């Protein structure tokens, strides 16, 4: 049984189909990524899952039962549009949101203080929210999401605006929740975060889910005939080469799609013969960003194509 099932969720605003019969399954104890470009329909999908928007069609199933108030009580939700009470003190903000979720007492206060120390904000616990930087406000909002120890954590673009150190801290806490058997769902347009953290994904584009399943299996399926290359030199000679179907530059790495899976050694020899300095050559490897561009970068990606379930 899945922890959560989204079935044919649809939302139309006037004539705009924001989400178009979106379906996916979230396994127990997993980190699940809802990925896609800005405006793809991720936030609208999450808001329907949370009951903020009523769907025009479809439903959300929690362990075999249609979700209701019980689900909201089990969820820690970080919305895309952040907002806290500006005049409230930091520690009071944390304790207030924990109380809203039914958690009070000394244990909760100690937990809040421990988190503040971990985020290097303990010395600001009596500061008003409006006196914190935008990044620190975002850290407090994240803590209000998790302080009551929810069974489900739903994070809408959680890494937006955070520096690398605090991004890494959020990542560590998310992984800790997974180790406890919690379900973490987060939306992002940043493919590298999804690739590093997620067990399963659903890729949404123009309101449609165009790919879903185990990330490892998805990458294995799409990696056939693909080589991830890091190099020094000029590889323009590969364009139009009879063994090469496509060359895609991603900045630090280059993705090369071969016409046949058995041509990887031939490609490596070709690069060496042309005096290319090969720093990294990963056969049958592909990044999530490459998969995303292949599917969502095509204007016809969501027009008439079936959802890929992997």
- The dominant shape is globular
What's the CATH C level of the largest domain?
Alpha Beta
Q: Domains counted in the coordinates: how many?
A: 2
How would you write the strand order of the largest sheet?
A: 6-7-8-3-9-10-15
How large is the radius of gyration? 22 Å
Please estimate the helix content: 25-40%
CATH architectural category of the largest domain: 3-Layer(aba) Sandwich
User: How many DSSP helices?
Assistant: 10
Detailed description of the structure:
This protein has 310 residues and is α/β, with parallel strands linked by helices. The protein has two domains: 4-219, 3-Layer(aba) Sandwich (Rossmann fold); 225-283, Alpha-Beta Plaits. It has helices at 42-49, 69-74, 90-100, 106-118, 134-146, 164-179, 191-197, 215-223, 264-273, 288-296; strands at 4-13, 16-26, 31-35, 57-62, 65-66, 75-78, 152-156, 183-188, 200-205, 208-214, 226-232, 244-249, 254-258, 277-283, 308-309. Strands 6-7-8-3-9-10-15 form a seven-stranded mixed sheet, sandwiched between helices. Strands 2-1-4-5 form a four-stranded antiparallel sheet, with helices on one face. The longest helix is centred in the middle third of the chain and has 16 residues, at 164-179. 33% of the residues are buried.
Brief synopsis:
This protein has helices spanning 42-49, 69-74, 90-100, 106-118, 134-146, 164-179, 191-197, 215-223, 264-273, 288-296, and strands spanning 4-13, 16-26, 31-35, 57-62, 65-66, 75-78, 152-156, 183-188, 200-205, 208-214, 226-232, 244-249, 254-258, 277-283, 308-309.
């Amino acid at each position: 049984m899945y922890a959560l099932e989204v079935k044919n969720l649809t939302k139309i605003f006037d004539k705009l189909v924001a989400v178009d019969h979106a379906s996916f399954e979230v396994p127990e104890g997993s980190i699940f990524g809802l990925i896609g470009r800005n405006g793809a329909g991720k936030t609208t999908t999450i808001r329907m899952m949370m009951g903020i928007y009523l769907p025009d069609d479809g439903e959300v199933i929690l362990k075999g039962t249609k979700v209701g108030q019980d689900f909201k009580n089990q969820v820690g939700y970080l919305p895309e549009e952040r907002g806290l009470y500006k005049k409230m003190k930091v520690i009071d903000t944390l304790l207030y949101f924990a109380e809203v979720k039914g958690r009070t007492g000394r244990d909760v206060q100690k937990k809040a203080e421990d988190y503040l120390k971990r985020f290097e904000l303990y010395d600001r616990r009596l500061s008003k929210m409006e006196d914190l930087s935008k990044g620190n406000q975002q850290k407090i909002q994240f803590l209000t999401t998790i302080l009551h120890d929810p069974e489900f954590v739903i994070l809408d673009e959680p890494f937006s605006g955070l520096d690398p150190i605090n991004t890494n801290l959020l990542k560590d806490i998310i992984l800790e929740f997974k180790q406890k058997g919690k379900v973490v769902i987060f939306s992002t347009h940043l493919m590298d975060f999804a690739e590093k953290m997620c067990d399963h994904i659903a890729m949404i584009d123009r309101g449609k889910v165009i790919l879903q399943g185990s990330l490892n299996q998805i990458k294995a399926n799409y990696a056939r005939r693909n080589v991830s290359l890091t190099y020094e030199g000029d590889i323009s000679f590969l364009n139009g080469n009879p063994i090469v179907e496509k060359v895609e530059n991603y900045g630090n790495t280059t993705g090369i799609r071969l016409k046949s899976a058995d041509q990887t050694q031939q490609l490596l020899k070709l690069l060496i013969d042309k005096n290319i300095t090969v720093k990294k050559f990963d056969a049958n490897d592909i990044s999530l960003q490459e998969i995303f561009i292949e599917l969502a970068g095509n204007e016809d990606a969501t027009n008439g194509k079936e959802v890929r379930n992997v």
